[in-house]
Design a protein that fits this description.
There is one protein chain. The chain is mainly alpha-helical. The protein has three domains: 169 residues, Glycosyltransferase (Alpha/alpha barrel), CATH 1.50.10.20; 276 residues, Glycosyltransferase (Alpha/alpha barrel); 189 residues, Glycosyltransferase. It has a two-stranded antiparallel ribbon with strand order 1-2. Strands 3-4 form a two-stranded antiparallel sheet. Helix 16 crosses helix 17, helix 26 packs antiparallel against helix 27 and helix 27 runs antiparallel to helix 28. It is globular, with a radius of gyration of 25 Å. The protein starts with 20 loop residues before the first strand and ends with a helix. The structure holds lanosterol (LAN). Lanosterol binds next to helix 9, helix 13, helix 17 and helix 19. One of its GO terms (molecular function) is lanosterol synthase activity. Keywords: Isomerase, Repeat. It comes from Calocera cornea HHB12733. This is Terpene cyclase/mutase family member.
């Protein structure tokens, strides 16, 4: 298993020839992208490098330059002139989706323990990425690229480097080791790090908070049954429950034995493992353990000592079955990068290294690996395809750029892509896998991954309606029936209090957060209502009902059903009815759509309750208040609430204007997402500026001066070729982990500049 040692001279050289990398798009399924290294000149001649490859590799594109734009519309046009060159032949805009620093180690450990290896060029670039992202000060890594060094980030990435062949004596390894030993070594890892090391046979399962697979055997009505957890959490705990029950680990080898010596401050054989269960480095603790979790830890530990073998076998059979269903539902892409690698290990353990499921897994792992100018990273998903195309498509129509003949081909390509991206059936394993309906939904990445996301469905629907109904040259590729299917999905996702969560309805009680064992993440146990998700759903419905009022009539008829169910509401019966009916839980009918007007009224009411006293909305998926406030003000304006007539809109706008920086821009730090308070970035950011300006435009803000200054700032940052440079990271998840949306610096700037042009003319 020992990989060949790799000894680069420094972290910043280019060990592979960047001119030989190519992004392959749509290989076998819609929207799929994988990076390929061409080894021969012959291959390079037959498959020339494109502007897309060069851009994402950080190589000069040589695209035409021109003098600075004179006005916002011209700047938007110039921006799209550049961005058009990054559109893939299949119609979408591929892009890097990096940021989190705990994913690449899972990829490397999962690959190592299943006896696989990476192609040499990939290996070299994975190493280079880690070298380039180590903090120069202490040689460590954090939870994400902009984060301070943590035990989790530093141990895991150190282990990744070692498994990739970097010797323990390499200066990068030496420096990182000093840092994590200072944090208390691998014994002080958060739970999600402890597991990975257990699988690698460098930590003992007795040192983890138990993950009893038997939880899945409990009656489904119980409030803490795992089917009610947030989908990412339950999908990670399913394979982990299986592997924990089996106490599976890789066989010892010299590298593993050496790592056991390198990772700890004490002798491996002397470590008191049970005492390490709750030992977590202070630098990592975002969500400290609660007393309830401690009690549960003791209980599950006792359970481990007495679980009857037939019960354990049944629990393992059940969790394995859920793993298989997830793999088959997603063609082995799986929901996200963590459960992807864990499922891969389960399929290796049960089905074997030569089995088709395992080999399928290995093949699809490539979808998560993204090549950059700084090396190769593991993405947060298999891409953000749908999300990026939905925004730029709307931007093109709303700015009028879509009506310019030079952009027609780009628009037609985007529409074609969106048409093929809509999911047209429910999952193969539907109710048995506790899935929400997918027929009619748009996913975040590709239809193969195939998970319904509320706001992706909303933005996908809006983009299609804009392109099909607001332009005179586009065909109606997505039929009215399919648009209605999307509406059904959106309506099925409203929670009883009016808000929408991310993938499903809120299924479990809030107190489940008290037993969140993942110390590095907040809000991870259940779904929550999010302003972003609620407003995407709301604006999509508003736009849809303007075009198709007849379908709205049918929905309103269904209000009676909703009213009936309201009458039935009392206590937990009400909660169960809402949650289980609407989520298509086992044995229960599909949800009946509730009325459009009702949806909107309730959603707007919820949005008002979610507004902070200072007038803003907190962003859970983008950084931070500018992001969510933009979405919220868009919704409110569609409902007729603007600066002139709504106190809450006025409050939001006045707050934003107070936060405008001296240079005319806005800048927010990811730290706002951690703390829940506004935190200025050291400098203004074009993406935050675009969001804040769009928010003011949606709100019909009456004074032009802040808008003029914002437009000027974004125009001043435009490069001679029309692009904008990458600035700070744009996105976030689970409060504590930042994630990159590099396409936002094009879609939202173009959108804002084009809309500002029209808006300022009318002021
Ligand atoms: C995403 C990315 C997209 C994001 C939006 C669509 C922007 C949001 O509005 C809804 C939630 C969603 C779909 C989302 C959820 C969590 C994800 C999948 C991610 C942030 C990308 C990566 C993250 C995932 C959880 C990473 C793996 C880590 C675990 C804790 C399992």
């Amino acid at each position: 298993m020992l990989p060949a040692p790799y000894i680069p001279a420094s972290g910043s050289e280019h060990p592979t020839d960047l001119a030989r990398w190519r992004l392959k798009v749509g290989d076998g399924s819609h929207g799929r992208h994988t990076w390929v290294y061409l080894r021969t000149d012959h291959e390079c001649t037959h498959w020339p490098q494109t502007d897309i490859d060069r851009y994402w590799l950080g190589l000069p594109t040589g695209l035409p330059e021109s003098p600075p734009a004179k006005g916002p519309l011209e700047a938007a046009r110039k921006g799209f002139e550049f961005y058009k060159h990054l559109q893939s032949p299949d119609g979408h805009w591929a892009g890097e989706y990096g940021g989190p620093m705990f994913l690449l180690p899972g990829l490397v450990i999962g690959t190592y323990v299943t006896g696989q290896d990476f192609p040499p060029e990939h290996k070299v670039e994975l190493i280079r990425y880690l070298f380039n992202t180590a903090h120069p000060s202490d040689g460590g890594w954090g939870l994400h690229v902009e984060h301070h060094s943590t035990c989790f980030g530093t141990v895991m990435n150190y282990v990744a480097l070692r498994l990739l062949g970097v010797p323990a004596t390499h200066p990068v390894a030496v420096k990182a080791r000093e840092t994590f030993l200072g944090f208390g070594g691998a014994a002080a890892l958060p739970q999600w790090g402890k597991w990975w090391l257990c699988l690698l046979n460098c930590y003992d399962w007795a040192g983890c908070i138990a993950i009893p697979a038997e939880l899945w055997l409990l009656p489904e009505w119980m409030p803490f049954h795992p089917w009610k957890w947030w989908i990412h959490t339950r999908n990670v705990y399913i394979p982990m429950g299986f592997l924990f029950a089996r106490k599976w680990h890789a066989p010892e080898d010299p590298l593993i034995l050496s790592l056991r010596e390198e990772l700890y401050t004490a002798d491996y054989d002397d470590i008191d493992w049970p005492a390490q269960q709750f030992n977590v480095a202070a630098a990592d603790l975002y969500y400290p353990h609660t007393a309830l979790l401690h009690a549960l830890g003791a209980l599950t530990h006792a359970w481990e000592q007495c679980v009857l073998p037939p019960v354990r076998r049944r629990a393992m059979d059940y969790t394995y079955q859920l793993v298989v269903q997830e793999d088959e539902n997603t063609a082995y892409q799986d929901l996200g990068p963590v459960n992807k690698m864990l499922n891969q290990i389960v399929r290796f353990v049960v089905d074997g290294p030569a089995s088709t499921p395992f080999l399928q897994h290995v093949e699809k792992t490539r979808d998560f690996m993204w090549m950059t100018g700084r090396g190769m990273l593991m993405g947060g998903t298999n891409g953000s395809q749908l999300w990026d195309i939905a925004f730029v498509s709307q931007a093109l129509v709303e700015t009028g750029l879509a009506r310019e003949p030079a952009n027609e081909q780009a628009v037609l390509g985007a529409l074609k892509w969106l048409d093929a991206a809509q999911i047209q059936r429910n999952p193969l394993h539907f109710r048995t896998a506790f899935r929400h309906q997918t027929k009619g939904a748009w996913p975040f990445s590709t239809p193969e991954q195939g998970y319904t996301v509320s706001d992706c469905t909303g933005e996908g629907l809006k983009a299609v309606i804009y392109m099909q109904n607001h332009l005179d040259y586009t065909p109606k590729l997505v039929s009215e029936r399919r648009l209605c299917d999307a509406v059904d999905v959106i309506l099925s996702l409203q929670n009883p209090d009016g808000g929408c969560a991310s993938y499903e309805l809120i299924r479990g009680p809030k107190w489940l957060e008290w037993i969140n064992p993942a110390e590095v993440f907040g809000n991870i146990m259940i779904e929550y209502n999010y302003p972003e998700c609620t407003t995407s759903a709301l604006t999509a419905l508003s736009i849809f009902t303007k075009e198709y009022p007849e379908y709205r009539a049918a929905e309103i008829r269904c209000v009676h059903l909703a009213v009936l169910s309201c009458l039935l509401r009392f206590g937990s019966v009400r909660f169960r009815l809402c949650v289980t009916r609407a989520s298509g839980a086992p044995g229960l009918p599909n949800p009946a759509p509730v009325g459009g007007r009702r949806f909107k009224t309730k959603a707007i009411a919820w949005l008002h309750t979610a507004q902070h006293p200072d007038g803003t909305w907190f962003g859970s998926w983008g950084i931070c208040f500018t992001y969510a406030t933009m979405f919220a003000l868009e919704s409110l304006s569609l409902a007729g609430e603007t600066y002139g007539n709504s106190a809450s809109v006025r409050k939001a706008c006045d707050f934003l204007v107070r936060k405008q920086m001296a240079d005319g821009g806005w800048g927010e730090s990811y730290k706002a997402c951690e703390s829940g308070q506004w935190v200025d970035h050291a400098m203004s950011q074009v993406v935050n500026t675009a969001w804040a300006t769009l928010a003011l435009i949606y709100a019909k803000y009456p004074h032009r001066e802040p808008l003029d200054r914002a437009v000027k700032l974004v125009m001043s940052r435009q490069q001679p070729d029309g692009s904008w440079n990458q600035e700070a990271i744009e996105g976030v998840f689970n409060k504590n982990c930042a994630i990159a949306y590099p396409n936002f610096k094009f879609s939202f700037t173009i959108w804002m500049l084009g809309r500002a042009h029209t808006y300022l003319q009318g002021l």
